[in-house]
Amino acid sequence: MAEISLDHVSKRFRVDSDFLVRRFRAGGGPVVQDDEEGSSSPGDTWARALDDVTLTIADGETMSLVGPSGCGKSTLLRVVAGLEQADSGRVLYDGRDMTDVPPKDRGIGMVFQNYALYPHMESRMNLGFFFLVRRRTEEIPERVRITADIMGVGFDQLLDRKPKELSGGQQQRVAIARCISRDPVLFLLDEPLSNLDAKLRIRTRVEIKRLLRRFAITTLYVTHDQTEAIALADRITVMNHGRVEQTGTYRQLFDTPVNAFVAGFIGSPAMNLHEVVVAPDRDAVLIEGTRLPIPPDWDIADLRTVLLGLRPEHLRVDLSNPDFLLAVEVVEPLVSDRQLLAHGKVGSLPFVARLPEDVEVQRGDILPLSADPDQLHLFHP
Q1: Which terminus, N or C, of the chain has the lesser number of Cβ atoms within 10 Å?
Q2: Are 127 and 177 in contact (CB under 8 A)?
Q3: Are strands 235-240 and 62-66 parallel, antiparallel or unpaired?
């Protein structure tokens, strides 16, 4: 096991015009015209994949990286693995600078999004290849046996089959087993469940959780899926435009987001975030002309407008004294949660409320809602 630290790590790469168009359409991070000293060609266009990232993953901790496409999650993982070199900053394993240590000597086990199994080898040799190239072939049978026991019922039936004979879920199990068989000090997983169907993803998520708890190996887990991040990780890091926005438990990120990006990214459905006008008396904000009191200890300085955040979970039906009225456009049942989502508009602003399933509401209704005053979030516009 090891503590992994990233100390002011930055990474950039040169891009062309086609890349700029694709990145813009995907809502990716910023690009810069680079005239800095050391640039191979002044005026080149660069994209920042990682921007001064400082982060520590504790010994034995599982940390998930989440964020939109193109935010730098996979690049960070590859820099930690040594598959890419940072332009500046250091990656430390237990305080040791790994800049000059090649990936094969870092003691990592990595599971890629496409599994990256050797197609011409049976699963048995995929697991044992690490020992084969190091001329430790005598260890292979015992390593394979131990790993098969760890992976559970039915895994031994996969050992004599090549990747093309395996389903996506079976390939994923072999990829994880190959990772485990090396007895690594660090697990790196890059969206390992993204190619699986929903039912198999849930089952495999439980299996990964069991393995992580059993070995207590330091783990960095990249995912787009917040449910995976919540289920597997001790802490979650939210990234955007190559930067770390906030790190904490899911509850910390959900309850106390440090900025509007984290507030809007964490939670499903997303937080209602709208720029609203501050009332002249400074003790309320105006939503489409309706006053919503804010706590007296909130310091909004001399701002005329603020970003108001209201989570759908913190809205309730209030027939007697509602804060505002929601014109319902879509009702979405959440059967397993015994709740429903009411999508609509407050004036011209889109809103969604998460309500108990026994609330009788349908398209076209005007729903009186009030917000929990202790759950308001205000951000600088």
Answers
A1: C
A2: yes
A3: parallel
Could you tell me if residue 339 is left (phi over 0), alpha (psi between -120 and 50 degrees) or otherwise beta? beta
Query: 287-324 burial, b if ≥16 CB within 10 A, otherwise e?
Result: beeeebebeeeeeeeeeeebbbbbbbbbbbbeeeebbb
User: Which pTM does this prediction carry?
Assistant: 0.85
pLDDT tier, 206 (very low <50, low <70, confident <90, very high otherwise): confident
As a whole number of angstroms, the distance between CA 110 and CA 115 comes to: 9
pLDDT of residue 351: 96
Q: Which residue's structure tokens are 């937080």?
A: 271
Strands 339-346 and 305-310, by their bridges, are unpaired
Cα(70)–Cα(63) distance, rounded to whole angstroms?
19
Taking the C-alpha atoms of residue 289 and residue 110, their distance in angstroms, rounded to an integer, is: 54
DSSP-assigned letter for residue 53: E
Amino acid at 297: D
Q: Is 43 exposed, middle or buried (0-12, 13-18, 19+ CB in 10 A)?
A: exposed
DSSP label of 323 = S
Tokens 């999650």 -> residue: 73
Site of tokens 């959900």: 254
Task: Report how far Cα 339 is from the mean position of its chain's Cα atoms.
Answer: 25
Reported as type and span, the H/E element at residue 146 is: helix 140-151
Length in residues, the chain: 381
Q: Which two tokens stand for residue 194?
A: 């993204």
CA 359 – CA 356 distance, rounded (Å)? 6
Contact 367, 328 (CB under 8 A): yes
On the 0-12 / 13-18 / 19+ scale of CB atoms within 10 A, 244 is buried
Vertex 75: Cα angle to 260 and 168 (nearest 5): 100
- The rounded distance, in Å, linking the Cα atoms of 270 and 171 is 33
pLDDT digits (tens, 9 = 90+) for 47-91: 788 999 999 999 999 999 999 988 899 999 999 999 999 999 999
